[in-house]
Write a structure and sequence with these properties.
Bound molecules: adenosine-5'-triphosphate
Order of helices and strands: EEEHEEHHHEHEHEE
Number of strands: 9
Largest sheet: 6 strands, mixed
Mean pLDDT: 88
Number of helices: 6
Strand order of the largest sheet: 5-6-7-3-8-9
Distance between the termini: 38 Å
Helix content: 25-40%
């Protein structure tokens, strides 16, 4: 059996006025692709924050393999068409938080590799503000890849993309999973994408949770707002 990269044991967490999980336990194997699904407000993003260490469990624990390196791809947001940075500059942004305000040769090569891996290299000089939704989302993905993660959290990364672009992005994520053995946790409302591109799902509900292979997903038993005919929000 593949080693777990993340183990959640008896996790409880809530905000002052609202309990979110009680006794949540699951394991993610290294190299697995899992969707995290559930209705609005059930606590999906909060769970990713707990995994990333931005919040502390009220009870239970989250055990990370010593080799774990997390990458995070945020939900696509509309970027002002006037946004001046090129795709390339945007992807390399986080590298600039160092003591010298220019990129080293190795950093430039790393940006080029991330642009190539996400299919953005040819359009690297295009202003991000003028890029398509899919290109913008790939730019976030390329930015995350620069930190060489082996565990990628995609937080509703496909939410406002059209069907073809969603498919393209998920195919790319699937290739990264295959090529680099990346573990993927994909937060989504989209049951069809979950079925097509992830091996298992973790469903959070107000009553509890379930974790199963996506081949056993029964849409009829899913919370109403997650049924496949309903387009995302
Ligand atoms: N910092 C906070 N303080 C208090 N309540 C919060 C805080 N962050 C989130 N919440 C609440 O916790 C609940 C879970 O929020 P979360 O963002 O994790 O849900 P979600 O499942 O990701 O929702 P969505 O699908 O709408 O993005 C919500 O009711 C939210 O309002």
């Amino acid at each position: 059996m593949t080693e777990p990269i993340l183990t959640v044991e008896h996790l409880s967490f809530g905000f002052r006025d609202r309990a979110l999980y009680h006794d949540l336990s699951f394991t993610l194997a290294a190299g697995s692709v899992t969707s995290l699904i559930g209705a609005n407000g059930v606590g999906k993003t909060t769970l990713t924050k707990l995994i990333m260490g931005q919040l502390t469990p009220t009870a239970g624990r989250i055990i990370k393999a010593p080799t774990l390196r997390l990458g995070y791809v945020p939900q696509f947001r509309n970027i002002d068409p006037e946004y001046p940075l090129s795709l390339r500059s945007f992807v390399g942004l986080n590298q600039m938080q160092r003591h010298v305000p220019w990129h080293s040769k190795a950093e430039k090569q790393a940006v080029t590799a991330a642009l190539r891996e996400t299919g953005l290299l040819e359009r690297q000089n295009q202003p991000l503000g003028m890029a398509s939704g899919g290109e913008k989302q790939k730019a976030y993905l390329a930015q995350a890849l620069l930190t060489h993660p082996n565990f990628l959290i995609l937080d509703e990364a496909t939410a406002s993309l059209d069907v073809n672009t969603k498919t393209e992005l998920m195919t790319l994520v699937g290739e990264l999973n295959q090529r680099r053995g990346l573990t993927v946790l994909f937060v989504t409302h989209d049951l069809e994408l979950a079925k097509a591109y992830t091996q298992q799902y973790l469903l959070l509900t107000q009553a509890g949770y379930e974790m199963r292979p996506t081949s056993e997903m029964n849409e009829a038993n899913m919370p109403k707002e997650l049924r496949p005919t309903e387009e995302v929000r």
